[in-house]
Amino acid sequence: MLKKEIQAIIEKSKKWGWVLESDAQKIFSLYGFKTPKYDVATSSDRAVTIARQIGYPVVAKIVSPMIIHKSDVKGVVVGIKDDKALIQTLERFRKLDGFVGMLIAEMVKGIELIIGAKNDVQFGPMILVGMGGVGVEIYKDVSLRMAPLTARDADHMINQLVARKLLTGYRGAEPINMSVLKKTMINFSRLMMDLKDIVESVDLNPVMCTAKACTVVDSRIMLKK
Amino acid sequence: MNLKPLFEPKTMAVIGISATNDRHPANVIFAKNNHRYPVGVYAVNPKGGKLHTETIYLRVADIPKKIDLAVIATRAELVPDVMADCIKAGVKSAAVISGGFTEGGRRDLQDRIVSMAREAGFPFIGPNCLGVYVPFKVDTFFLPIERMIKPEAGGVTFVSQSGGILVDQMIKFTQQGVGMAKAISIGNKAFIKEKELLAYLTNDPATKVIAYYIEGFGENEGREFVLAANSCAKPVIIMKSGKTPAGNRAVSSHTASLAGDYASFSAAVAQHNILEALNENELVSFCEVLSSYTKPIEGNIGIITGSGGHGAMTVDACSPAGIKVPELSAETKAEIMKNLTDNIRAIASLSNPVDLTGSAVDEDFVACAKVMGASPEIDCVIVLLLPYIPGVTLDIGVKLSSVSKQFNKPFIAYVPQVEKYTMLIEGFELNGIPVSPSIEGAVLMAKALVRKQPC
């Protein structure tokens, strides 16, 4: 069952047709996914307070119902090291279309994966996993299954990726935590079953995976029309 | 809902008969069933009259017998009234051949017959279809009998959204010696759909393999179908068309862009133990091999050939299909060597593929097959059989088939296909060994056995 808070967020987002990143992150966090520490500021003072609490360096992202693809308008700045750079970024974001705030989040490292879902007309929620980041549609190294996923499905999906060796400790790198990744995928597929009447598609991109955790760094929820 | 009257009718009404035009679809259907199949056939048209010497009944209700199957071939606008008559008269099922429903912009007509059928629990197939062909039972296809190519009776039931593809596939099955249990054209699949047929065919003793040609599923019907197919004890094969997106729809997420309609289709069917045939070649190969063998294999192939080139080509085709051609152990090789004829012992190459050379005789093929049959190193044997090798006889098929049966291990043969070799090919096929006319086809057959999970 969906939590009341999740329902409220979705209700509020219907007018835009999608869920703002700050709200989407809230949903995933409420459903038990690991998300980076973050908060949203509209003033310089508040921005500085949040950044200092999280600890530099931080990431800043535009929050605007008009901007779905943040990178296209340089709406994501990573590695902000001090107050000055943070305030400059805020000033620039203010001028972007539909500005309602700046999301400030901790920097998370790891291997970039995408975990996504699409509500297919014929098959209902389909779950996707693959190598993430901005190149996802170029490399197309992804695997698909119908939700809800079993542990066996999650296994097969990961094994199907061309780049799976990058996940298991390629050339001395530390392998990522497979059991956490599989749990994240399975948990995500269950959430998508719960949301199937409301959601059109979802991208968790990137999900940063390390030896310890899989952290949902950015998320986008498109609602059904 | 009982579909048996649709597939095994004892009585059949053909509605929409013309008193003057013998090439009218209804007349063709009447003529080909009347006195040819074990079914009583009755002609119906509200205008009445005579079809040659036969009475044309005004309404279904006027027929003196209870009707199992009504074949409706009237104009679309008349179908709702005809169906209402059928339901009222206690007809048990219908095939609606008539076109002119959703495909012609008349969704209203289709909706009317569907709601009528749903309310009455009245099973009908179509509209806009050929209906059903069941060997020795019934044939509602409006194709003149002299033009139909009918495969042997066998284990494959093919369900098709397109009547044309179905008829073409029957030609290909005939060419490849694949036997059919039923051919079912579902057209607009307004009421009886893929899922209902799956349920019926799962319990149909004549059907061993269930194959579909699908253009697309309705909303959420793909999900329901694959979940049902996953627990079906018979192999299910799908060939899909409409794989390329109609246009560049604007998609706002990466996932929606990457998980297109066909990508989702393909992933969902594979996940649920359904074999997707990518083209007609695969479809025929999969159907043929799965009507012979149901036991899945790991995919360790032993290859027996009379020509080194054929062996090498087969190995090359195996690797991309994910099939292994393992090196044979020293003991296995020694065992093969021991049993070969003297002439061959000196010249055969015993690594896998085993090349018995063009000097081999039947006994060499049989000896090698027996060792591979007994060896746990190999779980499927591909025999590359060249009928022009002088020492090979017409009996090779039956001899190898008894080895396959003795060791309960699947054998697949490649034999070049020309009319001259027909008897040799039938020696394999009629004794249960599937034969492919191409090396790639033989490997596809092995692939189908690997991909099929235990039921």
Keywords:
heterodimer, A: 225 residues, alpha+beta, D-amino Acid Aminotransferase, Chain A, domain 1, Dna Ligase, domain 1, 2 domains, seven-stranded antiparallel β-sheet, four-stranded antiparallel β-sheet, 11 strands, B: 455 residues, alpha/beta, Rossmann fold, 3 domains, seven-stranded mixed β-sheet, 19 strands, 37% helix, elongated
> Could you say what the CATH architecture of the largest domain in chain B is?
3-Layer(aba) Sandwich
Q: What is the helix fraction of residues of chain A, given as a range? A: 25-40%
Q: Which pair of chains has the greatest number of interface residues, and how are they split between the two chains? A: A-B, 30 and 26 residues
Largest sheet of chain A: 7 strands, antiparallel
CATH topology annotation of the largest domain in chain B: Rossmann fold
Can you tell me the CATH superfamily of the largest domain in chain B? Succinyl-CoA synthetase domains
Instruction: Count up the helices of chain A.
Output: 8
Order of helices and strands of chain A: HEHEHEEHEEEHEHHHEEE
User: What CATH architecture of the largest domain in chain A do you see?
Assistant: 2-Layer Sandwich
Number of helices of chain B: 17
CATH first level of the largest domain in chain A:
Alpha Beta
Ends distance of chain B: 26 Å
Could you give the distance between the termini of chain A? 22 Å
Whole-number average pLDDT of chain B?
94
Strand content of chain A: 25-35%
Outline type of chain A? globular
Q: Provide the helix percentage of chain B.
A: 25-40%
Whole-number count of domains of chain A:
2
Spatial strand order of the main sheet of chain B: 3-4-2-1-5-6-7
